[in-house]
# Entry
Amino acid sequence: MKAMKGVLRCLGERLSFVKVKKLYLPSSDGKLYNSCHLTVQDNPSFAERLTGDFGLPFLLDFHQQTLHVPTEVAIKLLCLLPEQIRPQTLSTAFKECIKTAENGEADAADIGIVNMITSRLSDSLFRQGLYRLALHVLRCLGKLNETHVEKMKRLIAALDHISVVKQSRLTTYLDYVGKFPFITEQVRNQIRCTSEAICPYFVDHHTVYIGTGSECSLDSLYGTLAEVINTMTNKLLTSVLHHVYIILRCNAASIEHHLDRVNIRPCDNFTDSDPQV
# Structure
């Protein structure tokens, strides 16, 4: 614990660890390990699915240590360590993958959700709302110049590449993609099998899969869609992501009123096919 405090303090003070060849830190089993053989639990959902003994030592949970440093800050500081002594994180060591591509038969509710989302993404009022939000962000950043034309084109074009697919028994698994050589193919297969889980929805690049017949929270689904749109626009909409969620969720006719109410400046020159300034 003292070692961890010392490391975080030095990292916080931007002291160099370049010359450090080996660093030993406490694991969740109470032993000291070479830091580059440890994994930091930065993804609770992944951690819940890794229930077996895979010979993968985890760094002692920050909540079990009196560090006086928020967990998120501690993780960011550890990521500043040189690669030769840097622990891996769950988020980088594991990738969630879709297991099957079974279409199956969807019930009326499943089809309704898919159609509703597809319709909203192609709706001109929704796209105009996104355009307004993007202009607002660029204006706030002081970047409202001719380059924003291309940004807007990418924003609108990105929506055409989002596909929503229904899939029966939507199952995902975790695949080990980390750097530890002692994780053999046999262990990887074991991880894939034991980490399987049925999901209500899953995002793979620009495709959103919806599990048919699952209890899919529309709030969560729209939140995921907002994140997908933001990612596809190079995180341009991060500061207004809550408004993206709202205009995805609300009645199309209410989008303009909502944006007016929160002082997002109107734009009169938007066209769905080729937005111009």
Q: What stands out?
A: Residues 108-261 form one domain. The beta strands are 24-26, 32-34, 39-40, 88-89, 94-98, 163-168, 171-176, 197-198, 201-204, 207-212. Residues 124-140 form the longest helix (17 residues). The mean pLDDT is 82.
